[in-house]
């Protein structure tokens, strides 16, 4: 044990400590590397694509905007300010219709009727039938604001609205429209579901055992 202590004492004595401490902090410098060429090319390419997408709107948006401007220009003051109008209802659909002298165009919610009704010939026939029955298919332009229900219900609501608007043109239209059944409001709606049944009247299958 004595040998170990003397050995440690001699070892510490042989060490020398410097009292001078450098006042300057160490500064580490790393070489700045430029980003690779491919990353700069990707960023430039992305910028060009974004700018082109903003600058050129799709033709569908342009067509919708032009139709909206056209309809608003034909209806100064909105639907409520027009003289020849009618309201039609069917199921859950409500349609407000305005007739103006024109060439037989039909616009529904600022869109062409054929596009809005998905080109369905039956629904288009519903819409135009009151005008065809009186021979006015190329005498009036129809402007419609419809909401609620589906397209079939809206088409029949528009038909009733046009028939009611034609009564404001002349009261003599009542007899031919009534004869075709175009002034009758179809009040049939879906019957509500009952508690304990699967549908309005359909019951679960009965099992005796």
UniProtKB/TrEMBL annotation:
Pfam families: Ribosomal_S9. GO terms for molecular function: RNA binding; structural constituent of ribosome. GO terms for biological process: translation. It comes from Actinidia chinensis var. chinensis. Gene3D superfamilies: 3.30.230.10. It comes from the Eukaryota. Keywords: Ribonucleoprotein, Ribosomal protein. Belongs to the universal ribosomal protein uS9 family. This is Small ribosomal subunit protein uS9c. InterPro entries: Ribosomal_Su5_D2-typ_SF (IPR020568), Ribosomal_uS9 (IPR000754), Ribosomal_uS9_bac/plastid (IPR023035), Ribosomal_uS9_CS (IPR020574), Ribsml_uS5_D2-typ_fold_subgr (IPR014721). One of its GO terms (cellular component) is plastid small ribosomal subunit. HAMAP family: Ribosomal_uS9_B. The keyword Lipid biosynthesis does not apply.
């Amino acid at each position: 044990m004595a040998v170990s202590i003397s050995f440690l004492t001699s070892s510490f004595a042989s060490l020398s400590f410097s009292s001078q401490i450098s006042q300057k902090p160490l500064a580490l410098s790393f070489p700045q590397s430029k980003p690779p060429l491919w990353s700069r090319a990707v960023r430039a390419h992305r910028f060009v694509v974004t700018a082109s997408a903003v600058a050129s709107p799709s033709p569908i948006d342009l067509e919708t905007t032009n139709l909206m401007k056209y309809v608003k220009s034909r209806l100064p003051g909105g639907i409520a300010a027009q003289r020849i109008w009618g309201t039609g209802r069917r199921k859950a659909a409500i349609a407000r219709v305005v007739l103006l002298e024109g060439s037989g165009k039909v616009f529904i919610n600022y869109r062409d009727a054929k596009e809005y009704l998905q080109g369905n010939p039956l629904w288009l026939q519903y819409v135009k039938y009151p005008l065809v029955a009186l021979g006015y298919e190329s005498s009036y332009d129809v402007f419609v604001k419809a909401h609620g229900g589906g397209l079939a219900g809206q088409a029949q609501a528009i038909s009733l609205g046009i028939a009611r608007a034609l009564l404001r043109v002349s009261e003599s239209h009542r007899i031919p429209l009534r004869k075709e059944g175009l002034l009758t409001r179809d009040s049939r709606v879906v019957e509500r579901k009952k508690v304990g049944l699967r549908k309005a009247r359909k019951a679960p299958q009965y099992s005796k055992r």
